[in-house]
Amino acid sequence: MSAYNLSSLNIMVVDDSVHMLRIVKTIFLAMGVTRVRYVSSVKEARAELLHMRPDIIITDWEMRPVDGLNFTRELRKEGGYFSRIPIILLTGHTEYERVMEAIQSGVSDVLAKPVSIEILHRRLCRIVDLSSMSANEPMLSGEEFLEIG
């Protein structure tokens, strides 16, 4: 895949589908990423976030009673740490309008289900790259892009 060592990342995955959580867990294990907290609801995620500060949150869009998009909006409104944490939204709906709604709501990236190890690995590496950019190195206009895959 790449020279990146992602094993030190601290990640939270929020998805109400046990099947999807298993898939994502298998992908992370294949990448050597083991510091992952898997939760099945936004309520459980909120409880965990009281004492956990993940480097990245990955959340499903369609969950009940609170979906991943509203979860993202809530976190962004809190400000501070939660206004900056990268959030990847997983969805089976990648229509342009929905992707734009997600981006406008504060997600960092949108990934189409089913997600592959290659795509997830690339996105995590990209997030690590963006996180390591100095505040003195502004991103060029158009450099940030959304790749649905």
Low-confidence stretches: 134-149
Characterize the overall form. Answer: globular
What count of helical segments does DSSP give? 6
CATH homologous superfamily identity: Response regulator
Task: Assign the CATH architecture.
Answer: 3-Layer(aba) Sandwich
Order of helices and strands: EHEHEHHEHEH
**What is the first-to-last residue Cα distance?**
17 Å
| Total individual domains | 1
Mean pLDDT: 87
**Numbering strands along the chain, what is their spatial order in the largest sheet?**
2-1-3-4-5
**Which CATH class applies here?**
Alpha Beta
Rounded to an integer in angstroms, the radius of gyration calculated over CA atoms is: 15 Å
CATH topology: Rossmann fold
Estimated helix fraction:
40-55%
Structural class: alpha/beta
Could you describe the largest sheet, including whether it forms a barrel?
5 strands, parallel
Strand content: 5-15%
Tell how many strands the DSSP assignment holds: 5
Organism: Kiloniella antarctica
Pfam family, one: Response_reg
Protein name: Response regulator
Modified residues (4-aspartylphosphate): 60
